[in-house]
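User: Second chain of the day. Same drill as before.
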Amino acid sequence: MKTSNADLSKNLKKYFGFNTFKGEQEEIINTLLKGDDVFVLMPTGGGKSLCYQLPALMSEGTAIVVSPLIALMKNQVDAVNGLSSDEGVAHVLNSSLNKTQTKQVMDDIRAGKTKLLYVAPESLIKEEYLDFLKDVKISFVAIDEAHCISEWGHDFRPEYRNLKQIIDQIADVPVIALTATATPKVQDDIQKTLGMSGAEVFKESFNRPNLFYEVRPKVNVDREIVKFIHQHKGKSGIVYCLSRRKVEEFAQLLQVNGINALPYHAGLDQKTRVMNQDKFLMEECDIIVATIAFGMGIDKPDVRFVVHYDIPKSLESYYQETGRAGRDGGEGHCLAFYDPKDIEKLEKFLAQKPVSEREIGLQLLNEVVGYAETSMSRRQYLMCYFGESFDPETGAGAKMDDNSVNPPPLKEATKDLKTVLELVKKLDEKFRTKDIINVISGKESAVTKSYKLETNPLFGVGIDQSDNYWKSIIRQATVQNFLQKDIETYGVLKLSEKGHSVLSGSYKKPFIIAEDRQYDLAQSKADSDQEQVQACAVMDDKLFAQLKDLRRKIAKKHGIPPYTVFMDPSLEDMTVQYPISVDEIAKIYGVGDGKAKKYGKEFAEFIKKYVEDNDIERTQDMVLKQVANKASHKVFIIQNTDKKIDLEDIAKAKNLSMTELLKEMESIVYQGTKLNINYYIDENFDEDLVEEFMDFMKESESDSMKVLLAEFGDDLSDEEVRLLRIKFISDVAN
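Assistant: Same format as last time:
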């Protein structure tokens, strides 16, 4: 189908209310309408969905849109149906429909009413659907979230791998594949799997200049997030956690601190999940605390911040999740909390996976560590990861991250890097971080004694620096790929090719590391808030608030999210233009004829009254509340440890997490009561390590977790250290 640019622009205005296309949208649509395959790489918020929605609305027949989540389909169908005054323009075809609903969908497609049909890849395999789709006119196939096809993508779905075969059975039509996150490796994989090597590729910049990126150390994280949300009161936000339990606990914590928050994860029953998502979309709840299952393709344009309670497993996940902020081009703050211990937990988890999956997972995880620990512009690091260059001084959004606003002190550490690399090489790449640090710091341990490492000429060479300094050198050398950590052999350090080139003298660049620092963004935040105020000076805030209320009421009446009535930028434009007729509403930014006819009358009448009533001349340190403590379980714990019951079972019996049980146990032993947990320690811990721990505690001046983790953090998790500390206090102090 050939179409002129004038036709495209006319239809863009008619259906979406926009006067101009964004970026390469126009060229993408033209290519698809010509009948060519198209591959689109476009960041979240760049207008991906318009690239297939507009050509579908303009074409004869029905476009099939393959999408991974039922919740996402429902959301998009509501949005598309809101663009037109006709019913049944968009439909979903999946397992959530009953027989009557499925028949209605098929009837609408046969009658030529339906322009977009959203399906999950699993639905396409069903014979009844496949036979039906072979007999109707299909305009093209769109594959959204196409990174799901690749094993190197952050959200690989095996059922996506067969799409090429299924599409070929249905019809010989062009295919448009779209994704917001794809490294060059993933892009290549998608094209090969879909047989799209001849496709026209459109790659827009992955840069989202309106997003501010910040990483903070994971200290007092609950307090920090509650404080952050209170500073953004009334704004929509998402908090991501890696576990379902943490989602539940943290949503509850936010609620007791006066924050309107709800949980969302795959373990909730479907009714609750859908209800919580809808409340967020309908602005009846400000914050969603979620696992990554939430928000994929959710088209809520006014999410103002995305917080990562836990650092994600890949930069693709991070980029896609942060991409849910500021999709309307307005403010978007992306705040992540980082603790190297979280990375160690993820590495342990990966160690149980098959080799190929583990290798991919570790490479993705290393990039996350690099991002969190980098001292360079975070935007530059992200752009580089997605194969794009970025100038941290002059690029769009150049000063929109914590490192650029508040640069950390840098230090050249080439000499110290060489010391570490030489030692790793001399010790035949057989030792872990902790052992390397003990040798450099001149500390004797069971390992140094048994391997006679005290005789090494480098023993004690770095005694003038702290253990944490050497740990930082090793960590940043690993991030910058001078060293590699062998997970299969419990983190043994090995030299990379780059590391060998430093020792041979062929690598000449200095090794720069960031010194530890505190993140202080108070001043820059105040400056950016001031800019926001100035930018909005011409807006009528009072009318804007009233229009949002009106929008909420209308949305509720129709059972749809408020932004599917009119987006925030449309409401903002109304507070500047004061439209008082449906025709004038149709000229407002982001409002098409269909929407103006559907919802414009009530808005026009409301604004007309407001203009008359106000004689307007029209021209064209916070205290964190904890969730109530559970009743003390002292007697139960003492009785059950005496019976040698497994600690996990004790926790389960009282509906406690392991962390909560340990708190109770610490309370018991620190109050002077003995607790017999030797049976549990004997079964789960290495005898030599327990002895080493007990010896250390006898000599140590402090029982603080900071001191204990500095000594044993490479060998033991936080929980394990706390258990051994409980044993020591019980055995020795009581």
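The chain has five domains: 5-203, 211-405, 410-514, 536-613, 634-733.

User: Great, on to the next one.
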